[in-house]
Amino acid sequence: MEFRRKRRRSVEIGLIPMIDVLLVLLFFFMVATTFRHQADIKLDLPKASVGEQAVAGQQINLFVLAEGGYRLDTGEASAEHLSSGLESLKSALQTLPAESKQWPFIINADGKASHQAVISVLDLANQLGFYHFSFAVDAASKHE
To answer: Measured between alpha carbons, how far is 73 from 88 in angstroms, rounded to an integer?
Structure first.
């Protein structure tokens, strides 16, 4: 009888395959987290540094309201409020003098106004021959 114990082989855990698996998992979670956070981005628009100001009376201010209405201000004493849509805005822009097409066309869009409303205004003004567009924004604080 042989009472001698057989020598057991030592068990080794391969570190190289484990490191490979951990790196693949790390890469996967980094990419998945990046895609998940893109939908959670919160924007506080519009804010920018203050640019040049046009001479008062020689500019067209168009206000795009949050509820979808428009207000046109050409620097005259009476500002015309347009709430019925793009057709009334088109007719109001067509009544402006011919030299107004060279004036700065400033779009003052509410932060809650739809993007489509702003693009529609840009397209309409471009079709009517206006080309000096700019957007009014809140001045960003230097300490924000």
So the answer is: 14
pTM of this prediction?
A: 0.54
Q: Which of 47, 43, 44, 42 is nearest to 136 (CA)?
A: 47
CA atoms within 13 A on the CB side of 6: 2
Domains of the chain, with CATH numbers?
47-139 (3.30.420)
pLDDT of residue 27: 92
Stretches where the chain sits below pLDDT 50 are: 37-45, 54, 77, 141-144
Strand-by-strand arrangement of the 105-109 sheet? 80-82, 70-73, 60-64, 105-109, 133-135
Q: Residue for token digits 């009376």?
A: 57
pLDDT of residue 43: 38
